[in-house]
Amino acid sequence: MNERLLIVEDEEKLARLLADYLKAAGFDVQRLSDGRGVVEWVRQQGPALILLDLMLPGRDGLEICREIRAFSRVPIIMTTARVEEIDRLLGLELGADDYICKPYSPREVVARVKAVLRRTVPPPPATRGSLRLDPDSLRVSAGGQELELTAVEFALLQTLYAAPGRIFSRDRLMDRIYLDHRVVSDRTIDSHVKKLRRKLAELAPGRDLVHSVYGVGYRYEERDPADPDE
């Protein structure tokens, strides 16, 4: 297995116990006890999953989760002893993939980790037409050049790209790209599409890839830019 996991937990005995169980299950485990260095560590190391405690010295786990979700879709399991926060976690307000209440069984944690990894394994890099999408790095490439997208931009492109010619409504795109099911306006989706188009224009100049369908939504299609949209 040898997938790298990050445990962010300031209770030393608990962190060691979790690490021992996860190592016995075949994982490569790293530990951090202070919230201030977590985001930068995730950016540099790219773990397969994060076990993130809610209450940490330095930075709150909620804040850390929000910041990670701005650039990564890495699975996050929140751990908490604060019962009053459960409703927020259940609502996936933060984009967390699961939560575990303290006190918990280390065996349960291992089972949860395996379950989350099974359902969040990213698809392999996809190539169609002039683009190649790599979900592990949030990069898209064409003609030997590549660019990095935000997590939301990549999810938007990946959704459209996987079904060329299919029209996705704004509501449908919201469901696909916001895993925390937050409520956003149509203008938010339009703004993301505008930024995505601008980046794709730099990568594949002269090619119209994401098309507007007036009053309906958006679709992905590679075609001659001289052809008019509907």
Name some characteristics of this structure:
four-stranded antiparallel sheet; 230 residues; 23% strand; disordered C terminus; alpha/beta; five-stranded parallel sheet; Arc Repressor Mutant, subunit A; 38% helix; elongated; Rossmann fold
Description:
By secondary structure, this protein is of the alpha/beta class. It folds into two domains: 4-120, Response regulator (Rossmann fold); 126-223, Orthogonal Bundle (Arc Repressor Mutant, subunit A). The protein is 38% helix and 23% strand. The protein has eight helices and twelve strands. It has helices at residues 12-24, 38-45, 61-69, 86-90, 106-120, 151-161, 170-177, 186-203; strands at 4-8, 28-32, 49-53, 76-80, 98-101, 126-128, 131-134, 139-142, 145-148, 168-169, 208-213, 217-223. It has a five-stranded parallel beta sheet. The protein has a four-stranded antiparallel beta sheet with strand order 6-7-8-9, covered by helices on one side. The radius of gyration is 20 Å and the shape is elongated. Residues 225-230 have low confidence and may be disordered.
